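FIELD: query
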Amino acid sequence: MGKNKKPKVKKKKKFKFGKRYIASHFFNREQSWLEFNSRVLNEARDSRTPLLERLRFLGIYSNNLDEFIMKRVGGLKGQLESEYSYISIDGKTPKEQLELIRAHILRDNDIQHDIYFNIIGELAENGVHLLDWTDLTDDEVDYCREYFKKNIFPILTPLSVDPGKPFPFISSLSTSFGLFVENPIVGGKVFSRVKIPDLVDRWITLDTSIAGSSRLVSTLDLIANNLDLLYPGMTILEVMPFRVTRNADLDHDDEDTEDLLELIEESINNRRLLEPIRIECLTDHSSEMLRYLMDEMDLSDEDLYIYEDTFDFASLFSIADLDLPHLKYKDWRPLTFPWFSYKNIFDTIKEEERLVHHPYENFQTSVERFIVEAAKDPSVLSIKMTLYRTGDNSQFIKSLIDAAENGKQVVCLIELKARFDEKRNIHWARKMEDAGVHVVYGIVGLKTHTKISMVVRREANGELLRYAHVASGNYNSKTARIYTDLGLFTTDVKITSEVNEVFNYLTGSSLKMDYDHLLVAPVNAKSKFLKKITEQIVKAQNGKKVRIVAKMNSLEDAVLIEALYAASKAGVEIILIVRGFCSLKPGVADLSENISVISVIGRFLEHSRIYFFSDGEGDWSGDYYIGSADWMHRNMHSRVEVIAPIESKKIKKQLKQILDIMIKDERSAWDLDSKGRYTQRSGEEKTGTHRKLMKSNLAALKKLEI
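FIELD: result
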């Protein structure tokens, strides 16, 4: 030991507790999320799901798990290495949570393998043959070798380790081959790595495919069996495909920064270099290669996941996209109702409040059109909007740039801290700034998650009128095709004036704390929700039959959960529609007997948030709200969110229909019990929430056309 080095003293682990709650009142967040992903995996197993869509769900399950491991497992592992660890609300240490996570993933991986094996067989029966290398004919092997030489060989780079070449950096979620190769002249075994570039197609259609039948081989197999071309004259001793996942749980400490954009750029680079936390490989390889890789990347057995067939489930999306309509969901084209077809969009909104429900209603002809027309309309003076995840080639960005170039006042709050979208958002921020858009990055210490936009227009009478859009989903035309989201268009001054105040809050010129109508986090949303729950308790104590129906992505805030328990004890009926994880325990005697929790999983990703509090005058009579916030601690305290009240009787009826269909769903709904188990409803009905809402929207449109 060097004279300046001191021996390491193992410090006693210190645990941090938040406000103390009764641990037995809550489900573990990580376990509950894994149960959600298991429900996604079940869609791949369900024979009622079209075959290629089942394959797609295998890919979705895998992508979900990748992100969970990067964010949640990465965070828990970071706590193990730090001086302090946080005890979860259900009383578990990080180590205990990591153990339950691993056990659940291993169980689901076995299920995933069985599903994949069965689907391959069913695909073959339908003329789609996913072949192993040993299944190929001699002619097909020759074809693959020529394909490799022309299309793959030129872009591969073998990196060998020797005294002059250190162990290569392995990027997160990249698929690689590890090889042991030997120079037959001088001897000596060396390690070499070949990365598979992201741009390479993961499946190759063979030239022996004929009409009505496709023969495909994976690029992994193709490369593995042609590596001799990369190592001429060398002896290849062993080949092993593997994939590494790195921690992505990197907090942005922006309290003292002077340039948030610069900080986020630095954080992106730092994330790339964070430590590996998972390695995946196949079963038919020796432990020597594994041990070498794991030693080099400081990985333990708890970080190792071994698969039988493949770990590259994301590659299945390209198979799911094959042009075989009979093996997919029936095509759905979002509808455009007459008021968005024939009228000036501002006249449409001014006429009455409008609710749009995507993907049943067309996003481009409503939400995109709102901003596109605002950019062109000479009567529009200003446009303000927030962008969280906007996607590539965004029409919104183009329209904001057009508006600025047309001399309009344009303000865009773009959230640089939207995880995994930071790089794209930085690109768009610079693009807009160059065009004269006033780009702001929000409030230090908060993430701007709200989805709002506002247009100020001079009307024919000379007065200025504000048009607002308050939504649950991102301004992203791609996700609008597969996420269910709601958006409210309004000129109601009670709403638009407060949306205006929210924008002033975001740009740093307002400290308004007394919103009368909007629920704004972190200002008043939580306190107003708690007040609404308390009002239900009082009504129930006074003998009224009241209910709460709340639809959200996730439920985790302990204070809100305890308030719901209190309401249940008072006799309030509570129905929670929670797509993802849920920390609340329903159906517990003397605690939550009047609470039921359901999760709807299907063709679309449920993403809308609806909150209903009855007034005691009927099951569906009362107050409705929509917006961007879940009942999670982070949404209430660390994010800017906006939830809007609904006053229109017509829109209330629309929301009632959505909630009622989901509650009665016998195809796509799962019920959560007091032990944390989800049970799929056993009805024989084949039409779930999403299909019913398609049909109801089609019927409504046809009725208008008669």
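FIELD: remark
The mean pLDDT is 91.
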